[in-house]
Amino acid sequence: MEYASFLRAHIERVVPLTDEEFEQVLPRFRPRTVSRRGLLIKSGDTVKSEFLVMDGLLKSFIYDEKGKEHILQFAMENWWVSDYAAFIAQDKGEIYVQALKTSVVLELSLSDRKELCVLVPKMYQFHGEKAFLGYVALQKRVLSMMKNSAKEKYELLLKQYPQLFQKVSKTLIAHYLGVSRETLSRLEKSHRS
Amino acid sequence: MEYASFLRAHIERVVPLTDEEFEQVLPRFRPRTVSRRGLLIKSGDTVKSEFLVMDGLLKSFIYDEKGKEHILQFAMENWWVSDYAAFIAQDKGEIYVQALKTSVVLELSLSDRKELCVLVPKMYQFHGEKAFLGYVALQKRVLSMMKNSAKEKYELLLKQYPQLFQKVSKTLIAHYLGVSRETLSRLEKSHRS
């Protein structure tokens, strides 16, 4: 799919744009292809951009002090991903964003995002809606991390993102849930039975 | 402080409004006083509104299956609080929002929020900015929950919200951090020494 039509459809799911408005929007986004295992962001980078996934699958994750991987987010088509604390501060981050298969993303810098909102104020509505939905999803995630057992977390993930289980290895699901590979197998068995 | 001037100053920290625009904004917000231990939202309620804190201090929290309290958020002056998953769906929630001392909040319903954005599009920018900052804060919280030790979580909270430690009991800090009261005392001692 041509990226212009993908981008326009993505934005217009929130707010319709005139052709003149979209002409302002389009040149601010830069398409990039990232191959499997390729990194869009790595810990220690100054994070200048956020990324809209047009095709493929990525994960954002950190390592703890013991070198254990913890997955913050998977990102599929139409999802946004970045190290947002570093992005908003234009500072060095701690998150890695890596492609799990060859992916095409549209890159938007913070300065382009801000300038574009001034030129096309409807983009405030677009970004606001995305941020609000992201906030709601993260509030659910925090509550789940605080109160749910591993079994409940597994079932919530299965309910929220059933397509993930076809796309992502068991090891990665375990890293997202914060359980061992063995625990995950046990959860799967008890879920099926 | 009169609530109109509080509200105007709160919004104008993000985006300036004309007098005509603020006349549209003001009647959508309803001031409410909630006394110590009073509940703005309780688990099982249909959540129609969000709340901007004008004065006082509140907490949002859940109980897990064992009846243990987990604090999602403290809310002080100029903070917003609700059960956002339930608010956005206008559905029943699982969160309690309770005043820790007598507080004054400004209540905004989802329908008023939406209508107001249509009438005064600058409010898209205002809510978008708030949601984005909230998203960034929650992303930090999730990362901290995933990777930090109790000691690191304690130090992050102290750095982010030093004023909380004067306002809130040790028991509540422990409920926020997800540690026992005894562990918190140990963390405090090791921090001071």
Automatic annotation (TrEMBL), chains A, B:
InterPro entries: cNMP-bd_dom, cNMP-bd_dom_sf, RmlC-like_jellyroll. Pfam families: cNMP_binding (PF00027). Signal peptide: none annotated. SUPFAM superfamilies: cAMP-binding domain-like (SSF51206). Residues 33-117 form the Cyclic nucleotide-binding domain. This is Crp/Fnr family transcriptional regulator. It comes from Flavobacterium agri.
